[in-house]
């Protein structure tokens, strides 16, 4: 790939060649920051930013993770092998397409036919298809091979349009009949997608858990031995109950995973549903990309995605980035010599109209998309860290299981394990081999089940569960998540760099003030106050120098204006002044255009009049256009030098800007026709004259602040998130809006460096920019590159979220920790570079995303606290009982049920808690903050200690406490163990409420609003009652009396007041891990002295 072409596409996804510094806010209270290099920091699970993370880092944590079921654990992470294969396949398909095209051209040349453009080559004989005079095959061949000769034979673009029964100006009729006819004959703009995984696939993957497989083997052996020794009637219970428990775990896991996948599937479909404008019946309407049909006329502008294959109808400075098809970042200019447009490519510059000739699978893009499988897997930083937590807990669990296994085996084979009647279970030389094997299998099964409970396989998957839930809910809050990691990273955001127009303001613009003819016109659309020549030039400039359009309904009625909000406001003002849009457009023609540029803040056109005169019209930021003017047109149509009035104009601009009006100037100049290139190639490179302009008008456009935006900004400030406004508008306009929104609190704040101009920031050294960036609240007259420089400076110490809508915002959106593109005004290029799309362009929706991001983190912490409590309690109870008594109170089936409550049901209940206002009163969570906080350690240790103490007392003294000494020994033992099991399960049910609010006394606040939580709690209790009352044979339990049920409930219930009392115990701010390592260092240092 030629390096010369790489800078040609300024908006392509930005890659920072410098060292990638990952920042995160440190502990609450000390404000420390992390500037460790991503590649060298911490262990394999210490990845704070998975956005563009190196492949070797991703491989490293996968290799370090302790995994029992790889297919399930890594389902929603990037499949590195498939991703590599996908890239190779993509390159192969692209090369194949290029080779086919080259072969066709070579063959044509060998036959003596000139390559594209030659009139000698005959196209296929036109075939009539239905009402159309051209077939799908002919269109496909022409587009695929880019055959200019065939296009010329069909009569050019106009001829193809006639054959497709399309008007180049008004598009297709657009009625239902015409629309369906085109779809039936030429196909729809969709391509075959690979079906999602079926439920049976998820079931199969759930079966591949290593420990569950071992348990199934053990169950089969136990079943065979049981039937052999006790007969089929009684002998199948032990093995059968384990098999049934494993089967239930597998089915519940598969159902949960399948529902999750359906949620992701629907969200992925939403991501691909691009909306764009088409011309139908003379009117511009917005449609889904899937509704584009052959014959449609599609207006294209910078940043758009070409929605289908087509031919250029007309365009100005139109440049296409074809890298998505060719793999090379080469910008291709489109004109009458190169009119073919390929689906999936992006508009890099200019604007124009295209005629759609092929859609869906008949396009090269469609073939490409149908050939590759879409692997949407992607790990998130939290997921990676949770794999680290799961690995650590799993190693501890394996060690505990190994100890239990060894101890129980030693006790069993040395004759120190006793039956309930006091007899030894194993006597060397006397016990039957089958009985010994059966005893050994039971011990092995218990050890394996401890591993199942100890290794929290569902912990990393809880992230995916809460993200799937949050993403679905965020759609309702007008936010579409494109990258999973952005959802959780938003919870750590410490600063938001927001655009002004459309995000903080309504984007409903109207011209409310105008200076025309050197004076203020009040009201601004009173045409009687304007001279005729000035009005004519002004309306000509408004109509021609615009990417918008005006549609006048045939039956009368108000004109329909389309375009960007600024364009619509100015076009509407022109209509109020008597502008006839269609007449002006048809009576003169644009020969060259300089599309609006966010760097230069202006756009212009050269217009050829019927008498061959040339008018150059410019429109843009008022002070910039004014600086290029040497004269102005007065109220008598006279041209006057601008020097005498320039101060008045500047004062008028400043006055309007101070009242938060967007100031736009309109100017023109006459140009000699002989100085304009006539050759198309020379004309495309011609620079529009920018100087010696005549000022026609300065208008002030009002764009009111969004209702509630001040409250949203204040909410961010309270949550420790600084809001910064970055706008291309005049500094005075930016200042006025910032004061109105609450970004600046007073006039005293509106001084440098709080308020700064883009060029001033740009001129600073990198070190100085880092210092100043901390203080900036408003940046006015900023270019996209200024925004990028600000993001780079802020990322050294902050987690940065950035909003953007333009094509040139793409580098900043990609560089930021979270890129937020605007759904209404945002270009497709901006959206593709973003992580989240704000569907209503509203800043309040950005704040909701912050809330959801914090909710994701908080929910995971709730689940961790709950799961670790169960882990610690279950492991300690079984280990202590096994070592001291040679028996475990919680058997394999009971532990599998506990695992189900803890893993799948617990995750569903706690990981789907909706966000609360309390989340927005905390500071942001640092990305290197420990997942298990000191508050969580306190809570879980209190609960685990309580559960372990009570249940071990019941295990060793239960018979005497419950007055069971005189009962049958076997029955008494079963009653005691059933009570332990029942109390343990109910402790988890009650503790689930405690886990909802780790740092609040009132754990019941809002609980009734979470129907899923209440449903799972209810289901758990009902199933526990069924197990105790009806499934005793399977779970080795007996029915409990109402008194013992009451005892179980009281044991569980005590966890509520205990949790409330525990929350009064203060905890140190320094994380427990740091305290321990600090003490170890001190001891080492002390020992060295």
From TrEMBL:
A Pfam entry, by short name: E1-E2_ATPase
Superkingdom: Eukaryota
Q: What is its EC number?
A: 7.2.2.10
Q: Where is this region: Disordered?
A: 1-47
Q: What class of enzyme is it?
A: translocase
Which reaction does this chain catalyze? Ca(2+)(in) + ATP + H2O = Ca(2+)(out) + ADP + phosphate + H(+)
The residue ranges crossing the membrane are 202-227, 239-258, 389-413, 443-469, 1012-1032, 1044-1065
Localization of this protein:
Endomembrane system; Membrane
**What is the protein name stated in its UniProt record?**
Calcium-transporting ATPase
């Amino acid at each position: 790939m030629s390096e010369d072409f790489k800078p040609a596409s300024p908006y392509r996804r930005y890659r920072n060649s410098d060292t990638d510094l990952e920042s995160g806010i440190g502990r609450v209270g000390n404000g420390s920051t992390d500037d460790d290099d991503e590649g060298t920091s911490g262990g394999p699970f210490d990845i704070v930013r998975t956005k563009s993370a190196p492949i070797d880092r991703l491989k490293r944590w996968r290799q370090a993770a302790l995994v029992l079921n790889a297919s399930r654990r890594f389902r929603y992470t990037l499949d590195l092998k498939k991703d590599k294969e996908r890239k190779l396949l993509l390159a192969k398909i692209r090369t194949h397409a290029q080779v086919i095209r080259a072969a066709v051209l070579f063959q044509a040349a060998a036959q003596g036919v000139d390559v594209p453009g030659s009139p000698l080559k005959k196209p296929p004989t036109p075939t009539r298809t239905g009402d159309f005079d051209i077939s799908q095959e002919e269109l496909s061949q022409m587009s695929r091979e880019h055959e200019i000769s065939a296009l010329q034979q069909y009569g050019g673009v106009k001829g193809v349009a006639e054959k497709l029964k399309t008007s180049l100006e008004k598009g297709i009729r657009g009625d239902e009949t015409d629309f369906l006819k085109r779809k039936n004959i030429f196909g729809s703009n969709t391509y075959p997608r690979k079906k999602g995984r079926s439920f049976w696939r998820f079931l199969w993957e759930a079966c591949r858990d290593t420990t569950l497989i071992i348990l199934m083997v053990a169950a089969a052996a136990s079943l065979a031995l049981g039937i052999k020794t006790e007969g089929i009637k009684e002998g199948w219970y032990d093995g059968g109950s384990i098999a049934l428990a494993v089967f239930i775990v597998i089915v519940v896991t598969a159902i949960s995973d399948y529902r999750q996948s359906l949620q992701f599937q629907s969200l992925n479909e939403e991501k691909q549903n691009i909306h764009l404008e088409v011309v139908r019946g003379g009117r511009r309407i917005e449609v889904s990309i899937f509704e584009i049909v052959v014959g449609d006329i599609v207006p294209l502008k910078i940043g758009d995605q070409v929605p289908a294959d087509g031919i250029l109808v007309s365009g100005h400075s139109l440049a296409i980035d074809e890298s998505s098809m060719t793999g090379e970042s080469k910008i291709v200019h489109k004109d009458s010599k190169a009119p073919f447009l390929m689906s999936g490519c992006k508009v890099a510059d200019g604007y124009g109209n295209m005629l759609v000739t092929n859609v869906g699978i008949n396009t090269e893009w469609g073939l490409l998309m149908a050939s590759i499988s879409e692997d949407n897997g992607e790990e998130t930083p939290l997921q990676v860290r949770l794999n680290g937590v799961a690995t650590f807990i799993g190693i501890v669990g394996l060690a505990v299981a190994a100890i239990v296994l060894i101890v129980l085996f030693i006790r069993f084979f040395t004759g120190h394990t006793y039956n309930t009647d006091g007899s030894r279970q194993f006597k060397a030389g006397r016990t039957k081999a089958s009985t010994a094997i059966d005893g050994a299998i039971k011990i092995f099964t218990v050890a394996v089940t401890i591993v199942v409970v100890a290794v929290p396989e569902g912990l990393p998957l809880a992230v995916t569960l809460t993200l799937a839930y949050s993403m679905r809910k965020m759609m309702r809050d007008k936010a579409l998540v494109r990258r999973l990691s952005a959802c959780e990273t938003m919870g750590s955001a410490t600063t938001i760099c927001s655009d002004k127009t459309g995000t903080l303001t309504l984007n409903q613009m109207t011209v409310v003030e105008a200076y025309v003819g050197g004076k203020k016109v009040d009201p601004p659309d009173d045409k009687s106050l304007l001279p005729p020549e000035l009005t004519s030039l002004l309306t000509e400039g408004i109509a021609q120098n615009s990417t918008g359009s005006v549609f006048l309904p045939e039956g009368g009625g108000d004109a329909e204006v389309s375009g960007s909000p600024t364009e619509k406001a100015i076009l509407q003002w022109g209509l109020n002044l008597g502008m006839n849009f269609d007449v002006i457009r048809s009576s003169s023609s644009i020969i060259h255009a300089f599309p609006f540029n966010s760097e230069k803040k202006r756009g212009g056109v050269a217009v050829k009049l019927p008498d061959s005169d040339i008018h150059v019209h410019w429109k843009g930021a008022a002070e910039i256009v004014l600086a290029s003017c040497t004269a102005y047109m007065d109220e008598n149509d006279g041209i006057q030098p601008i020097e005498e009035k320039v101060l008045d104009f500047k004062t008028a601009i400043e006055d309007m800007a101070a009242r938060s009006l967007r100031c736009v100037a309109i100017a023109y100049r006459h140009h000699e026709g002989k100085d304009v290139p006539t050759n198309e190639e020379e004309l495309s490179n011609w620079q529009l004259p920018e100087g010696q302009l005549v000022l026609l008008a300065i208008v002030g456009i009002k764009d009111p602040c969004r209702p509630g935006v001040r409250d949203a900004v204040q909410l961010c400030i309270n949550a420790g998130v600084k809001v910064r406004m970055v706008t291309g508008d005049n500094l005075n306009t930016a200042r006025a809006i910032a004061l109105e929104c609450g970004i600046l609190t007073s006039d005293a704040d509106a001084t440098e460096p709080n308020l700064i101009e883009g060029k001033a920031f740009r001129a600073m050294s990198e070190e100085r920019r880092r210092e100043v960036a901390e203080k900036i609240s408003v940046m006015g007259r900023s270019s996209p590159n200024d925004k990028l420089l600000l993001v780079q400076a802020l990322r050294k110490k902050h987690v940065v979220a950035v909003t953007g809508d333009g094509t040139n915002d793409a580098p900043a959106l990609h560089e930021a920790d979270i890129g937020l593109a605007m759904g209404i005004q945002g270009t497709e290029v901006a959206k593709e570079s973003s992580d989240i799309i704000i569907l209503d362009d509203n800043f309040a929706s950005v704040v909701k995303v912050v809330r959801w991001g914090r909710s994701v983190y908080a929910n995971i912490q709730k689940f961790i606290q709950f799961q670790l409590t169960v882990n610690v309690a279950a492991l300690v109870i079984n280990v202590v009982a096994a070592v001291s008594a040679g028996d475990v109170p919680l058997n394999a089936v009971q532990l599998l049920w506990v695992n189900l409550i803890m893993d799948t049901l617990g995750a569903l209940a706690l990981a789907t808690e909706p966000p609360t206002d309390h989340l927005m009163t905390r500071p942001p969570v640092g990305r290197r903050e420990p997942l298990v906080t000191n508050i969580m350690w306190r809570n879980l240790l209190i609960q685990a200690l309580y559960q372990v103490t009570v249940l071990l007392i019941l295990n060793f003294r239960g018979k005497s406490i419950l007055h069971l000494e005189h009962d049958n020994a076997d029955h008494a033992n079963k009653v005691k163990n059933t009570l332990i099991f029942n109390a343990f399960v109910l402790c988890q049910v009650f503790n689930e409420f405690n886990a909802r609010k780790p740092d609040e006394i009132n754990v019941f606040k809002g609980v009734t609003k979470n129907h899923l939580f209440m449903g799972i709690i209810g289901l758990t209790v009902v199933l526990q009652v069924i197990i105790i009352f009806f499934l005793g044979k399977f779970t080795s339990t007996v029915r409990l009396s109402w008194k013992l049920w009451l005892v179980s409930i009281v044991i569980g219930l005590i966890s509520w007041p205990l949790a409330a009392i525990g929350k009064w115990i203060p905890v140190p701010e320094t994380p427990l891990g740091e305290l321990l390592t600090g003490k170890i260092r001190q001891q080492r240092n002390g020992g060295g002295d």
